[in-house]
Amino acid sequence: MVPPACATISRLQLVERCPPLKRLDRTLLLIVIALSTLIPTAAEAQRAKVEVSIDVSDGSTRLLLRHSKRVVYAVREQVGRVELVYAEPVQVEPPEQRLDDQLLSHYEVQGDRTLVLFVGPGYHSHESFELRNPFRLVIDLQGVRPLEQADERGTRKKKKRSRQPRTIVVIDPGHGGVEHGAIGPTGLREKDVTLDLARRLRQLLEQDSSISVVLTRDEDRLVGLDERTAIANHNRADLFLSVHLNASPRTNARGAETYFLSTEATDDEARTLAALENRAYRVDKKSLSSNGDKDARNLELILWDLAQNQYLAESSALGESVQRHLDALTGVRNRGVRQAPFRVLMGATMPSVLVEVGFVSNREEELRLKNLGYRNQVVQAMAAAVREYLDNLQRLSEPTSGVRRGASRP
Predict the structure, then answer these.
(1) How far apart are CA 244 and CA 354, in angstroms?
(2) What is the pLDDT of residue 385?
(3) Has this prediction a pTM greater than 0.90?
(4) Most buried residue, 3, 62, 218, 371, by most Cβ within 10 Å?
């Protein structure tokens, strides 16, 4: 219904300048007025929505802020607070939350552009980093969270944590989203198999209460190569395991192989495979064509290769263990441990390997990979390799530290 020209409608009131309306007309007009108060303005509709979730762990409190679109922001620290200031109005949900936490007392939205985190007495410092696809901002509040316990006399005293730090394993299911990866003769897609294997491996490893598993993706979505290792680094992982399926123009190619990082590939086949994997993730990006870009990329790879040198022996040992257990439990052909410049391994600051569990281009191996029983065998082999690697590492560290390597990671 269109109001009469003699009436003016605003969000809050109706100014009548016309003769009395009939009862039905007045009712409809009041409904129009009520609905107008619920319709957001164009500016409100365009605001980025920010969804806040909080995770509390031993040494940090993590805020994950999921954004409906990318927004320019700045994080600044004031006395007793950390402020997240946006360059444009945003809508934060929930707008405030109070926690019983030593690192984060509560947070609240001030105005329409500022999220204020009121820190607790245990707070020391903060770190922040971005994740893409979709755009997310992670803020880690770090500090000390002492446990207090009342003694028999009613006084309170600090109690040291007796629980050993958990070993963190990051599993990376290859490909995802628009990047399907290799596809078998009957249509089996690499991205689907790797995600299923990663979920099964997580479930198996977490039967050990001393191991915590993080997946770089737990759904069918595209995750950038750099983001995958960033997830491992920011979770302070003790090892990084990227799971893939292989493919070859030679339909009789078969077997499993494991790679760790090097600027120089073991052979031409390894070099070609790394190039194909690295190129696959550029579906949404401009290809690097200028000499300057290539030089910068080569320099970056060399620097990360130097950073990985300290984990060279450990990555090799993990790869050998994976190959040995896959051979024993699945009977798959052992193609050995190789080195290649895989982009997904470049940024990792821990022992890291990429496992090609089989050739989906081979009809026989594709058929085996479709079988859930065979997938369980593959997962059992990888889990056994991870446990063997961690047990060996613990035995080596016991004479000096008595704890796992992960306990000393900053």
Answers:
(1) 7
(2) 94
(3) no
(4) 62
